[in-house]
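Hey, I was hoping to borrow your eyes for a little while. A protein chain has come my way and I'm curious about its shape. Take your time with it, there's no hurry, and the full record follows here:
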Amino acid sequence: MAIKIESLGIKQLLAIHYYVHNLERSRKFYCERMDFQEVAVSNEALALRGRQRSLVFRAADCVVVCSQPQGVGSRAWRYLQKHPDGVGSIIFEVHDIKKTFSLLDKRGGNPITEIETLQDDLGTLKTFSITTPFGDTTFRFIERYDYRGLFPGFEWYETPHDGHNQFQFSHFDHVTSNFETMSPALLWLGHVMGFEPFWGVEFHTDDVSQNNDHGSGLRSKVFWDPQSKVKFANNEPYRPFFKNSQINIFHEEHRGDGVQHIALAVADIIPAIKGLRTRQVEFMPTPGTYYDMLPERIRRLGIEKIDEDLQTLRDLEILVDGDGKNQYLLQIFLKESSRLYKEAEAGPFFFEIIQRKGDEGFGAGNFRALFESIERAQKNPAVLAY
């Protein structure tokens, strides 16, 4: 019988901190395309001290901080010396910062700092960060007490700029990371973070190929924190054709392990995707054969019926999956940033958009569709020259 590990007391995944070469491009993406609000900017003192300029974008509980280096020496600058644009830190809100620090310290977590108390006109918070096996991505923990913002040093606009969250993003559903070998990360998530196994799959994209001479495979395991329901999906390449695996290609393009994508939850995916497409948001394509086979796949999954019109799903290229019991999920994946902007330094990160209709899994069939779509893009030399 597995020993239950004491919870860290995570309340929520509060924000992601994204390091970028071009902050204005980030503003256009989040505000003009995704309809996030721009809610804050780093003040002069923070920008000078940290040697980076930051903007905060928000859609309900989806908060993204983007930072661009100002000169040399900042955390963003150091990250971008090694990697293209990517997730440099994941920020969690916790109930009791002292308890979280103590548990992590005892379990072999490696704090970068002691607990720091910070305050400004918006109140007081306590925080610390730790290293992780997620490449150069750190985890930050915050107890906010009475704090009314995200972090000291930001100027919060009286009226948010630009977006209105018309697509109704609600929260981060999960974080997905890619590793050359994921066992160290899984052990760390379990023994240090206290997360528990939740879901898993392994497959090869061409395991039905007559010649079995190409394709790629992967293993994926999801761990979660049952208290907060924060989920981390973790992928590694799977033989044969290890080097052809899109997980391995991500590793090469990102120049190391790291966060591949983050899922944004929505209440109604169809109007969201219709609206995003009118704003020129680009998605990974799905072949028509996926939808030709969809009615039979739905039947095999044990789903008696779905509420959505199949032609609408085909037109919008939305994927459907589930584990039976008449429960399912709907999801779609944006193009990787590097292919969206046709620039390698934009990085291989992308967003997923997901609507859950009772199913809390991750859609093994859709994993195959996603990774085959990524592979098609990677095989097209006209998409991006590295």
Q: What stands out?
A: Residues 10-162 form a domain with the 2,3-Dihydroxybiphenyl 1,2-Dioxygenase; domain 1 fold (CATH 3.10.180.10).
